[in-house]
Amino acid sequence: MRRGKKMYDIHIKCLYAITMDKEKRIFPKGSILIKDGIIEYIGKEVKAKAKKTIEGEKYIALPGLINCHTHVYQSLIEGIGYDMHFNPWNILFLLPLVSHIGPEHASASAEIAALEMIKSGTTAFSDHWYLHTDFSNIDKVAQVFYQSGLRNHSVFGFLNESFAGWKKNTDTEMVRSEKALMDAARSFIKNWHKKGRTIVALGPGSTEDVSRDFFKKIIVLAKEMDVSVVTHIAGWVEIVSTSLKKYKMRDLEYAHSLGFTGKNAIAIHCVWLNAEEMNIIANTETKVVHCPVANMHLGYGIAPISEMFFRGITVGLGTDGAASYTYDMFEIGKTAAMLGKVKNLDAEAITAEKVLEMLTIDGAKVLGMDSFTGSIEKGKRADIILVDLDNPHLMLGGKPVPKIVYSAKGNDVVTSIIDGKIIMENRKVLTMDEKSILVKAKRMQDDLIEKAGEKTKILLRTNWPTRGKASWRMN
Ligand SMILES: [Zn+2]
Predict the structure, then answer these.
(1) Spacing, Cα 69 to ligand 1 middle (Å)
(2) Of the candidates 96, 172, 403, 435, which lies 20 to 30 Å from 61 by C-alpha distance?
(3) Radius of gyration of the chain (CA)
(4) pLDDT of residue 211
């Protein structure tokens, strides 16, 4: 079949095109035609004129992966404090470093994270940035995202009471006043919301990091601006007991009482929800983000996501910050499946198909982007990745979806197209200078360690822990 005389921008030919559309169609030997950033054709292979044709007879095309929750600033601190719970990790290891983050560190962290995301097949993500040690940090980060070509949901974070329960001021401010935060949030929305591929959202750190009144004001502002509101809910079990003590309500119940829940609300983690709270989430159409690797690493627990599916709740997947040690969403997806199966003693609890939904179209629903991304469909923006099957671990004999979900890795993605533009081609990122980013990130990490002081340096020099619990983790 020939598609007339029209000149398309890109013609992708592939072994399989996995659409993730409503019918979940998969086209063997497919064609995708893109013009002006829009998918104009998806279906059986056709002949067409195009400025660029990708001969992908060994490629699977699928919608770009969506990381629904991360904190890019933590990409500079991986390997510094690990194998421990949120606290002491946060207080002993994270705080002395990140309290010194300035605009240059902020942009270096965003660059290295963006690079890793592009190189592992993510095309859209949500970053929760609450490190306003300098109010221009978040602006620098937004500039990097803009430059990278990635589609992003940039969450302006708020901490006016504490940083993860930690209240004392550091020598650089992390917990800021209500007024300063509100002014900065309004200006961030004005400067960045709907600019290019950026959508802004508002994100109180958690119910313990933000005062009751301020939490309500943030929700009002989000409604006024018609942006989503994002917070960490019932991730670690301690926050539920804190909430019960303080408010006589569980964490989600309390957030619900403030008006948090609703179609535009995104609840991160949701590990410790009871049945009633899951019903609240379902009835209000609140969205959930599951971060299985970070939850496992920090010993948070296992979020009951198959119970959520049973109630019709939309769940996306996220890496969260440094605790996952990766931006590779293939790894997150596979872990979500394996963890769900073992938790429920049921191999069907979370299937390969469900994982791919969470990684693509459901993730887009969580971030409010499903009208234009999350699937390869006529009329949607072209956010597409190509996975090279010409690898021993990807030899295709059976169905393509389980192979993609259970065997593919981020570095099997050879080409990435976002908004109709080729962002990575044959593993070369075209929007960012990889070498200089790596050099700068290392320099910025060294600078943070230097600023954090002797205690952090001693921690980095400690020996291999040989017996039982390593004392340096507990000091
Ligand atoms: Zn988080």
Answers:
(1) 7
(2) 435
(3) 22
(4) 94
